[in-house]
Amino acid sequence: RLTAKCDVYSFGVVLLELLSGRRAVDKTRVGAEQNLVDWAKPYLGDRRKLFRIMDIKLEGQYPQKGAYMVAILALQCISEAKVRPSMSEVLSALEQLPPPRDPASPSNSDPQVIYSPHVKSPMRPNSPHLKSHLRNNYDSPVNMSPRSPLPPHMKSPILKSPRGRCFSSQLVTSV
């Protein structure tokens, strides 16, 4: 059954992917390192150990406070379903993050704009459109109707594990 709590769990996994630079499931890794959540979870709540999961391509050039705040948010998102935040609460937590700095041009960067190499135009975290989209699409159970933001070929059933975690059926080998 698809729920808003599954969406929050999935968003937590995306946050972990962003922090670590790793995929959610990586069969090229050994043992517990294959599953990003299982590998990263022990480090998320400890400020001194967080560097162990951070993307090495960042070469330590990231705001430690912001990374820790995102790690705590990711940990909340991947927690048991009954204690996970709503997407509105996730959005509020994201809005509390320190503004990003563009290291290439610190004097010319707008602290209210997020620059990403994957997006052609800058994104504003406080955009009413972004807030509306997150609240309307992720604070209620997933809508598999034509209004759903994903095209049909990208939709996959979600399975619930005995531990209350949500998974894409493409990633689950046994439940």
UniProtKB/TrEMBL annotation:
The lineage of its organism: Eukaryota, Viridiplantae, Streptophyta, Embryophyta, Tracheophyta. InterPro entries: Kinase-like_dom_sf, Plant_Ser_Thr_Prot_Kinase. SUPFAM superfamilies: Protein kinase-like (PK-like). Residues 96-175 are annotated as: Disordered. It comes from the Eukaryota. This is Protein kinase domain-containing protein. Gene3D superfamilies: Transferase(Phosphotransferase) domain 1. Residues 135-146 have a biased composition (Polar residues).
